[in-house]
Give the backbone structure.
Amino acid sequence: MEFLNEQIDVKGLPDITDIQAEKLAANYLKVIFITRGLTSFIFITGIVVAAILLKDISVTIRFSVAGLLIILFIWFFSLSSKVFNTRSYAIRQRDIIYTRGLLFKSTTIVPFNRIQHAEIVSGPIDRFYNLSSLKIFTAGGSQSDLSLPGLLSSDAARIKSFIISKTAQDEEE
Amino acid sequence: MKRNDFDFSQPNKQSYAAIVFLAYHFFRILVRQLWPVLIAVLVGRENLKNMLFWIIAGISVLVFVFAVISYLRYYFYIDNDELVVVKGIFKRSRTNIPFQRIQTINIEQSILHQLLQVAKLEVDTAGSKGTEFSFSALSMAKAEALRQVVLEQKSKILPLPQTSGVEKISGSELALQTILHLSFSELIRIGATQNHLRSLLIILAFFMTLYNQVEDIGVDTDQVVDQINEEVVYFGKIAIIILGLMSVLASFTFSLIRTIIRYYDFTLFRTNDGFKIVSGLFTKKQISAKDHKIQYISWADNPLKRLLGLYDVYLKQASSSEVRDTKSISIPGCNSKNVERIKFYYVSPEEWKDLKNFKISGKYIYVRVLYFGILPAIILGSLMLFTDFKIYSLLTALWPLLVYLAFRVNHKKWNFAINHELIYIRNGIFGNYFKALRLYKIQSMALRQSIYQRKHQLATITIYTASGNINIPYVHLDLAKDICNFVLFKIESDKRKWM
């Protein structure tokens, strides 16, 4: 193989932040509200029941801990729309970028020529709103696998076939 | 498909010796399932000897019958570039392994194998679980022949990936070059400089499980512990010192024995497209690591090893889709010259040139001290206030200071460098860890920022490889982005296959 070592202008390379990020489908906000609402509801009910039943522990400790936990879950629920706003994705010619995270912001970039396979997953609440998640698997282990939630089912299918055509094209080269 | 005297297109059986190994296999399964029952039945019986005889006789017959049947119903053949294995006593299973999927074939001989003049053959595939398996006993000649045939066929279908212009040589590994051979005295030096703390933990874990098992059988462990306690109180400090010395000695001996068993007669060869290792006292292992399968290499020392100028080198291989065991081949007891040779075999000296050095931000220290120093100290200190050791809670204030000093050293060592071909990382607290990773082996990249990092324009770069993640913490955001953009450009434009 020929050895090339040309100088590359790093500042001239395509920038991962210089993109038009796509928001997730508007209905996905409702899905977040419902799932977070349900989790919070279940946990708060559990906490209240526990606070009433655990008579061995002194009243002040019992109720102050329960109160704190309940506030935590209400906070968890109230963050729903902020969480939704932090999530965005972008598809470039050669890779896919997904940004998420409120406290810990993370941007993951998966090049198409490293994708092993892609999968469309759709839960019951997702299906109700006609949404899907696109899961992208690489050889980098479960942590590097990308799950792109809240896509319109038609979009998810389109993106998936686009990615697959790209990876196939790459294998031919 | 005929080669040597073996015709693999017809169903082949294993060597007769396989019955021995199958019997052992069934014996282990049976004993593992039945031992609590056996103990329950046997304890407190009068005619113990008689019963024991019948039980052993019964198990032996059962095991032998199972082994023979399973031997007779186990065969394999090669069909259209696929290795087909049919097996099972009641539930028949048929596994097809396409040659392209086969990564390596390892041949292994334990003492028993050597006595029976057979070998264990392990077929290692990339990807889906359940397709990795082994033949417990094939005659040595047959094992070699099968390996040869598979590797040859495989190279015909799939031309070897073009890694750094190595000449393709069909199947067999020619030109073996010895890089490292460990003599017994070197082995002892390696054993003496192992991480003894880890050995101690392994010993402790062993005793814990033993303790639990003994308790399960119904021995009153509390009584034993009480007795030990009493004696410890009686002998006081001397007992504690003796116990401490004993555990130090035990961990030291354990490390030494483990090293000797694992690395006895260790030899590292360079083949034309990878590395090959032969080692082991009881079980002679032969492992090969092809260059194209190695994802990155790393090498490390610890304070003890540094005194002797020794390093451990690790060849990190792509693991199967299951991350559970990331395949890493360790090469102990390399001196800096050996390290250099392995380094330059894997990445040519030319490609090491023009590395541009970077450091990580000093903010890294403060956050680590907060998480690992101050927070644990506050929690532990305040918990101690509720106990009888109130005075000691003041001592916890020293902990953050120690953590601070450790991470200051760590920050000073933290260094990474990058050029057109690779990323080179150095870090460590007490020891030194080095990693060298070719850019095109990277699977994907991520930039992470906590709130604190966002405030200070810092980011942590995570590099995902097929052999685990590598983090570069607290890099200035602009630099992190540039590195990310550059690495992505390299991944996306480099035509070499990562595996």
Q: What stands out?
A: The interface with chain A takes residues 162, 164-165, 318-319, 321, 323, 350, 420, 442-451, 454, 464-466, 468-469, 481-482, 484-486, 488-489, 491-492, 495, 498-499 of chain B (CB under 8 Å). The first strand of chain B starts at residue 2 and ends at 3.
